[in-house]
What does this fold into?
Amino acid sequence: MSRKATSFYWAVCAAGLAALALGAWYFAISDLSRFLVYLFVAAFASRLKINIPEINGTVSVNFIFILIGIAELNYSETLIIGCTAILTQSLMFRERGFNLMQSMFNVLGAAFAVAGAYYTYNGPLAALVGNSPYLLIMLAACVYFILNTLPVATIISD
It folds into this structure.
């Protein structure tokens, strides 16, 4: 990896660690049984991939459960579900074996993406758009997609 890519790698990891630290600071589980069901289903869904015609690659189903968490759970719960889903996906689809650095980048990058999407839906932007849940979840999905895809695409392009 080039020096720029290495710096970018560590910047993404630092942002993800900051998101995890915030989740740990405000840690709370409001409804344990609902949280565990969402966690289990999201981890299971991470094993599923959808092939999209004309696109070279697949899309993971865990994206849906992360968005459900953003809309229905608190920050800590959503962060745990998102990171667990990405870690499960990372561990399940390794043709070349486990790569700690790549898995760490994926999980911490996802933590940052979940944080950005969560605060897009639940933050001050909600008042600006009139608390429209449909518009907010659409914006949160866009933020999650951009914050989750851009770092991976940047590292791959190096």
